[in-house]
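User: Fold this; tokens only.

Assistant: Input:
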Amino acid sequence: MRFRHPDGTTVHLAYCTNVHPAETLDGVLAQLRDHCEPVRRRLGRDRLGIGLWLAHDAARAVDTDPAALRALRRELDRRGLEVVTLNGFPYEGFGAAEVKYLVYKPDWADRERLEYTTALARVLAALLPDDVTEGSVSTLPLGWRTTWTAERAAAGRAALRTLGQRLDSLAELTGRSVRVGLEPEPGCVVETTADALAPLGSVGHPRVGVCVDTCHLATSFEDPTAALDALAASPVPVVKAQLSAALHAEHPGRPEVRTALAGFAEPRFLHQTRALTGAGVRGTDDLPEALAGGPLPADVPWRAHFHVPLHASPTAPLTSTLPVLRAALARLVGGPRPLTRHLEVETYTWQALPPGLRPRGRDRLADGIAAELALARDLLTDLGLKELP
């Protein structure tokens, strides 16, 4: 979906296909047919943007085989889909029964991460619509904090510098600019947007910046306006933004609240949980740890890294951080110039919701994704952007 910003530029809205995990090109092509095109039809659009997730094997196949690349581009066109952004955070295995910490491997100190991200940039440059010259790729925020030594930090910075050089070469070769954004996430080396400024400043490349995920922003209790003002004042670009909402518990000490939270403590994904105290933000790596009586005080609100559907707030006594998303979006695209032109709805946890809230079948999932995009569309038009055909 495309929107005209009041300054005349085009803002793109997509939804991320990591909600339909597939490891192979054949699996990706099936996603386009079984999920993405039905979402487009529900929205009554001739064209729909998708934030494509290509696992390592699929990315390698498309990057090394021109026929495979042509097949993917042809299928996108056939289904009325367009791609201006890729999700390069998960490397592989995002559809596994247990993902947890595995999603942070390989990290930016590992050569595989650089090669994977470079391949994604090459693929994206070829997939961009004919009238679009800028693409974006989101990636993990360096690595998980407990494995990040000084030696690995130096290797990570070197890899990002090499990435910047490769992106420059790609732009010279293709005439298309691809930028890569580190996506701050609780528990990682770059946990907040503020954490991103120093390492990205040391890299100092205009094609390597930040991807702002509003669920992560909220989970870390960052003030969205202050965080985005700081980014806007820095030389670090906001490459893209992921529109998502976290799980919020206002009174986590109450038995009924803990029971409700326990319904979201599932075994597949990591749900980092945070509490804002007078001494600062305190946290656990996962929701079960917080519920087991860990270090989080129960007399202040908790937020958990669980991407809840944008249009359907959890039932009481829980809520979502949709207000944080609204405030962030107002700063991202509501001003005289947009801070970013690539927006992506990223709710990948539909099948991790408590059983009673999970969509039953493809049709219900398509209904839910379409409803999320409709909400995002309305938020954008309320900010003065005009939806384009």
